[in-house]
Design brief:
Elements (H helix, E strand, L loop, with lengths): L6 E5 L2 E6 L2 H22 L7 H13 L1 H10 L12 H17 L1 H7 L1
Antiparallel strand pairs: 1-2
Helix pairs in contact: 1-2, 4-5
């Protein structure tokens, strides 16, 4: 028989999420606390959001708190990460690399 330890985040009598370690459960609980505060704050805004919209927006803001903090601190969005190359371009790059490998045996040994 196996024994598993689970850390369950419970809010208002409902299980929200289960985690394998306490650190992740505490972080999620803290994020839910932040979402609650943000939801209350959004209800005070001049926008007319229904409760579901403000809850969803508050949760999204809490999930992205580091990005939101950076935007508020620096006044701009961070640079987007470069997009991965499409499959066709990746294949042509790989073909070019393979042709270079055959010309340079030292590169082959590093790649292998």
């Amino acid at each position: 028989m196996a024994v598993e330890i689970k850390y369950v985040v419970v809010r208002e009598g409902q299980e929200k999420m289960a985690f394998a370690n306490k650190k992740d459960a505490d972080a999620y609980d803290k994020m839910l606390d932040l979402a609650g505060v943000l939801g209350e704050w959004l209800q005070q805004s001049p926008l007319s959001l229904d409760e579901g919209q403000s809850d969803a927006l508050a949760m999204w803001m809490a999930e992205n708190k580091d990005l939101l903090s950076g935007v508020l601190k620096h006044g701009k969005l961070p640079e987007p990460a470069p997009a991965p190359a499409p499959a066709a371009e990746a294949e042509s790059v790989q073909d070019a690399d393979e042709s270079n490998v055959s010309e340079h045996p030292r590169k082959r040994s590093k790649a292998a």
